[in-house]
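Repro:
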Amino acid sequence: MKKITHFKYKIVLIFITMLIGQTIVAQIVNQNNPYSFFGIGELHNSNLAIQRSMGQTSLAFRSPVHINPNNPASYTALKLTAFETALDFNGFRLNTDDQTGRTSQVGLSYLNLAFPINKFLGASVGARPYSKINYFLTEERNNNEDVGTENLTYFGKGGIQQVNMGSGFAYKGFSIGFNANYLFGSSTKLIVSEYPDVIGAFDIAQSTTSLTKGFLWDFGAQYYTQLGAKNMVLTLGATAKLAGDLTTENTDIWERGFFNEGNLTFENGGFASTSNSITGNISLPNQYGFGFMLTDTIANKWRFGADVLLSQWAEYKVDGITDPNLKNSVKISIGGSVTPNANDINNYWKRLNYRFGAYYNTNSLQLRETNLPEYGITFGMGMPLRFRNDLRQFARLNLSFDIGQRGSTNQNLISENYIKTTLGFTFNSKWFVKRRYY
């Protein structure tokens, strides 16, 4: 009875941590990302730290101590309970033809808990951002002689959060799994028009506040078999994130007054405002992935793999209308890791897991008939924080670095150079242990 009670306390504590973490996510993001203006914003990287440092390869990734929510079939590989969390520290340099600016982002990246139920079943719960909106853009237009110059300011913030629960089932080298994902969140988009050439003219603002929620499903499968002299395991992985609809409640408000550019706030000038509320929906597209991974099974020294991910963003719709700026995209990832000697208790550096990789993404966004590809290299390491020969309880620090570029300066567009750092922690322990009494 004491063991069961202790187990319940662990579950309650982790769920409270997840709820607190999801609240923090939206509060400490301060990045100005111009491309989050489009669609539902910038999609959050769904990989955990270990997969990020391996070129973001994950579809055929299986581990007895690490979680892989990108393919729920991998939950059956777990031998120990795993709790994983991480912080993101990202720096960006934004470039146009004649200007350069810098911005940054700090935030909680994910919270995940997974555990084996028996040798056939595994389960997982998690929470992370799904997408983020945070931009500040300006535009100058020349109208007729009566109006003159019109200065437009576009400001947006918010995003969508995700909570998921999933399970996997394995039998004779095959594993299948699913994730049920609940998405929710809010965002505010503000457009302000200023008329500096018209004496005494008021500024005009249109703000749209959106509340979004809905369910999505994704499924995964893996097949794993030993090769040759049985010193390697080949794993093949496939995933399908199914299309689904999110419901939205949009509140539009039009006002006349004064815009404070420094604080990005609008003050009504004493005029009556006009507002309306509209219920709508967002249709998210299908996404399919395929990958492989080779793993050393004798000395547990290395692994290497590759993924191909196909996303049908041309099918993205808002209230039944497609977005002409979005197109289908293809992402290719390769990566691996090396551990010199995981059991060398005398040399700490030999026990480290060194990771590396690269990726290329055609990107779903196309503006002014210009493609905006994304590509980068990754590296990192897994650093044991506690070493126990019985493998009943230990922790690991996972560092991931991603150096890359997205976008283009052609057609007066913006390119991003970035360095993304993930500081992750993995905690493992043996939960379901029968007590013996003598």
